[in-house]
Amino acid sequence: MTDATINMDDSREAGFGDYFALLKPRVMSLVVFTAFAGMIVAPGGIHPFIGFFAILCIAIGGGASGALNMWYDADIDQVMKRTKSRPIPSGKVAPEEALAIGLTLSAFSVVMLGLATNWVAAGLLAFTIFFYAVVYTMWLKRSTPQNIVIGGAAGAFPPMIGWAAVTGDITLPSVLMFMLVFMWTPPHFWALALFMNADYDKAKVPMLTVTHGKRVTRNHILAYTVLLALTAGAMFLTPLAGWAYLVAFVVLNGLFLKGAIVIWRRNEEQAEADNYKAERAFFKLSLAYTFLHFTALMLDKGLMAAGLGGPF
C-alpha cells in the first residue's frame, strides 16, 4: 500500500456493519453462490452439515481476500467516487485492523476447510486468496491493462473449490465452470469501466479504458463476449448440461452478444448523450449471466436425479 493518509473518524467506534463491509459482501455473494453450485452439481454427495460448513469457510476466505484488497488499495479507494465510502478511506476502520482481519480469516478458512473436507479444496482456497490479494491487487491492478483479464481467475476458482470439496479432485466440468466465470469477468468489468472511466483515470488504475481508450475497450468487449459464448457452449461436452442449461445458454448468450454488438457500434458522442444507457444495461445483464447459467446447471442436476432429463 502506498503512503496515503487515511483520516480516521474519531466520532464513533467501528460497528459490525463496518467490519462486515470490509469483507466485500456483494463480491462474497457471487463467491458463495458459484461455490455452492459447484458443490451441488458435483458427482456423489456431501453431508449437509459439512457442505454448509465448507460454504461458510469459502465465504470467509472470500471475505478475507476482500479485507486484504481494501487494506492495500486504501489509497486508490480514497480518490474514487465508487469506493471512497468504504470502511478504510472513510476512516471507520484502521488499515492495520483490516490487515489483521484479512490474514486471520485467511488462515482460519483454509485450515478449517481442509479439516472439514479435503486438502485439495483447501489448497485451491489458499491459492485463490493469494491470487486475489497478491497477484491481482498488489501486482496486476496497478501495472497492466490486463489486470481484469488475468486477475479474473481469482473470482473464477469458487465453483472449482465447491466441486473439489465434494470430489477431492479437479476434472473437466469444474475447469469449465472456472472458465465460464473467468471469461465473463473482462466484459463485465470493461462495461463498468466505460461509464466509470473518470474514477479509474483519477486513481491512475491502468484499466483498458484509460490506457487504450474506449474504442479499443468496445472491441475487446465484443471479442470476449464471443469467446464467452463458446466457453459456455463447451459445457455441453460434460454430463452437467441438460435442457435447463440449453435454454439459459441460448437466451443469455443471445442477449449478451446482442448487447455487445450494440456497445461495439456506438461511439462516445452517442454514449455520452444518453448517459451510457446501453453500457449500463449490458453491465446489469452481466450480473444475471453467471447466476442464471449456474442456476440452470443445478436445476439440470435435480431434473436428472428425478429422471426427468439427461445430459446432451
UniProtKB/TrEMBL annotation:
This is Protoheme IX farnesyltransferase. CDD domains: PT_UbiA_Cox10. It is found in: Cell membrane. Pfam families: UbiA. InterPro entries: Protohaem_IX_farnesylTrfase (IPR006369), UbiA_prenyltransferase (IPR000537), UbiA_prenylTrfase_CS (IPR030470), UbiA_sf (IPR044878). Its EC number is 2.5.1.141. Belongs to the UbiA prenyltransferase family. Protoheme IX farnesyltransferase subfamily. Converts heme B (protoheme IX) to heme O by substitution of the vinyl group on carbon 2 of heme B porphyrin ring with a hydroxyethyl farnesyl side group. The chain crosses the membrane at residues 27-46, 52-72, 93-113, 119-140, 147-166, 178-200, 221-237, 243-264, 285-308. It catalyses: heme b + (2E,6E)-farnesyl diphosphate + H2O = Fe(II)-heme o + diphosphate. It is an enzyme of class 2 (transferase). One of its GO terms (cellular component) is plasma membrane. Coiled coil: none annotated. It is a multi-pass membrane protein. The lineage of its organism: Bacteria, Pseudomonadati, Pseudomonadota, Alphaproteobacteria, Rhodobacterales. Carbon 2 of the heme B porphyrin ring is defined according to the Fischer nomenclature. HAMAP family: CyoE_CtaB.
